[in-house]
Amino acid sequence: MQRLYLLLADALLLLHALIVVFNVAAVPVIWLGYLLRWRFVRNFSFRVTHLLLIGFVAAESVLGLICPLTTWENALRVKAGDDALYPRGFVSYWVHRLIFHDLGQAVFAVGYGVFFALVFFTWVWVKPRPPRWWTRRSG
Question: What is the pTM of this model?
Fold first, then answer.
């Protein structure tokens, strides 16, 4: 059973990493796609998913909440008899490891807020196409 808990914890960690990569990489991809006229960067589902995900991350950071994926991963690791590897949160832990500074929650809240503002600006400037159900059919 402990192996199952570790497997599930690792799956959550992988999902979390993919969400982080998606959130960060989508902005330059959207702008590059805008310049190169790639149609998919205006896809409504892609864009609304990006906006909502980073909005959720920014909101939980401003509210001082820990990401549910981090909480679930840590709980699974503890159930497996392992140490919770990310006591400060997944992103905070890896950013700390990369730049060798332990930044406070307020710094991340501001960073996520600024990044959300960039994503929102991108939404406004590089407008997504409305979904088909949104457009009215002419008679």
Answer: 0.80
Q: Is residue 7 part of a domain?
A: yes
Own/partner pairs, 89-97, CB within 8 angstroms, 24+ separation: 90/13, 90/16, 90/17, 90/20, 91/20, 91/67
- Measured CA to CA in angstroms, residue 93 lies from 16, 20, 61 at distances of 13, 13, 14
Q: Does 135 map to a domain?
A: no
* Cα torsion through 63, 68, 73, 78, rounded to 10: 70
Residue 68 lies in a domain: yes
Q: Count of domains in the chain?
A: 1
Angle at 110 between CA 106 and CA 111, to 5 degrees: 115
Higher pLDDT among residues 25 and 95, named by residue: 25
Condensed to tens digits (0 to 9), the pLDDT of residues 52-63 reads 999 999 999 899
Print the domain residue range for 21: 2-125
CB-CB contact of 104 with 92 (8 Å): no
138 inside domain: no
Beta strands in 6-136 (DSSP E): none
Q: Is 84 helix (H, G, I), strand (E, B) or coil?
A: coil
Q: For the chain, how many residues are written?
A: 139
